[in-house]
Amino acid sequence: MNKLLFLALGAACGTTWAQTPATNPMPDGSRDMYAGLGVQSAPRWDGTGSRKVSALPVLQVQWSNGLFISGMSAGMHLSDDPTFEYGPLLAVQPGRDRTGTGQALGGIGSTDTMLIGPVPEPIDKRNMRNTDLDGMDKIGARLQGGVFANYYVTPQWRLTSSLLYGAGNDHDGARLDLGVQRLAVELGAWHHVSLSAGATVVNRNYNQTYFGVTLAEVSRSRFSYYEAGGGLQDAHVGVRWNWAWSPSWMLTTNLQARRLLGSAARSPLVERSTNLTVSTAIAYRF
Question: What is the pTM of this model?
Answer without folding.
Answer: 0.81
